[in-house]
Amino acid sequence: MIPTRHQLKALGGVAGPVAFVSAWSILGATKPGYTPVHDPISRLAAVDAASRVAMTSGFLAFSLGVGLYANEMRANMPGVALAAMTTAVATVGISVTPLGSSLGGVPHATCAGIAYLSLAAAPIVGARYLARSGRRRSATASIVVGVASGAFLLASVLSPRAVGLSQRIGLTLGDTWIVLTALGLAF
Length: 187
Hints:
Layout: H1 5-10, H2 12-30, H3 52-73, H4 78-96, H5 106-132, H6 136-158, H7 163-186
C-alpha cells in the first residue's frame, strides 16, 4: 500500500522528531568532553563544534518534518497546527543563530524560548480538541505532557547545572506527543 500525500505529511511529525533526537543522542554521546546532563543541545551546533553540520541538519530535519505535520494538522486541530508551525519556525531560528556566532546570544535564546513555549503549548491546546471529541483520558494525558514538558524546559533555563538533562526530558516529552498524534493522523 502506497501512503497518501496526507499520510506522508502527517508522518513528518514522526520523521522530524526522530531525526532531531537521533542527532543529539548520537552526537552528544560521541563528542569528547561533552556531557548531555550539563551541556545544552545547541552546544553541538555551535560555531566551533565539529558536530555543527550534523546537529544543524538535525534541527532542520525537525523543522521540516514538524512543519509538514503542522500543515496536515490544520484541518483537525488548527491550534495545534499553529503551535507546531511556531516550533518549526523557531527551530530554524535556532539553527541560523548558532552559539558562538555574531547572530547567537540573545537571538538564539529568543528562538529557543519560543520553540520551548510552543512545543509545550501544543499538547495543552490539543487537549481541548481531544476532550471535545470525547477522548477525555487522552485530553488529560495531553495536559500532563504539556505541563511536564514546559516545566522541564523552564528548568533548563533556570538551572544551568542540569540544563542538558532538563532540556532533553522536556523536548522528548513534547516530541513524543507530536509523534503519537502524527501516527494517529496518518493512520
